Here is the input.
Amino acid sequence: MGVITLTGSNSFLINQEIDQNVALYIEENGPMGVERIDADTVTAEEVIQRITSPSLFVQNRLILLRDVSRNKDLSDAILSFVETPQEQTKLIIIERSLDARSRLYKGLKKYSDFKEFNELRIDQLASWLRTRVDFYGGSISVSDALYLVERSGAKQQLLDQEVQKLVIYKPEISRQSIDLLVEPGINSKSFDVAAAAFSGNTKEAVRIYFEQRALKVDPLLIIGSLAWQLHLLVLVKSAGSRENINNDSGINPWSLDKAFALARKINYSQLVAAIDRLIVIDSKCKSVDINADDALIYFLLSI
Here is the structure.
């Protein structure tokens, strides 16, 4: 029945592919015969035996095998099965991250139905989101789809949940219903804080900051999120172009798009000064009794 490899950082699309394969198998063969194996919890010999041994109860089997790369012995042994799979067994190998230099990656790429699912860019997310809204019986404009992505964040699982909630409330999704029902994501809003401050719009930066505080977001969480945004800006500023950033970096394209847009507006000296000041604020908040709100507001005003 063949071997399928599912890999990449987009867990939502990988899980969707798994669900579709399981549903199709059950429709054709019934629920018996579906087996799930975590390769890092059993020996290579046990995995191979479970894959190759015929079942006494069903003719065809579906095996979901996770994290082969964490089991070195199995990484070598599994390729023999992949090259000559059994007709009665459909094997789905699920790997979140595969080293493209490894023998396992090259073997799976050559001998299996290799499917790689990476995080979507912001424009792709908005397009995908509109199809989900349509699937649930609602409608949303392109601009409002982009707004929902920016407000909620780039995780498809969360966005799918937000879409279901919004469609139930009112099938025609508007910016007003998004503001009413969708909590702004801390990372998304902290990037807006940084973008406003670096663009010279300190009034907007302070407004967003107090909006986060009104939502009971702790100042230390805001500091941590700002630190991540500054780290991302250093990365893209040093890289110069998207092609110079490794696909295995774990950074979703949506964040990179926003970071590159912002990086064009600032220079290295501004970035270094902001990092130095944030380090001092973080250290003082954790070691002495200071007013974190005052310190962060001053930080935003001094960028």
In short: DSSP finds 14 helices and five strands in the chain. Residues 219-239 form the longest helix (21 residues).
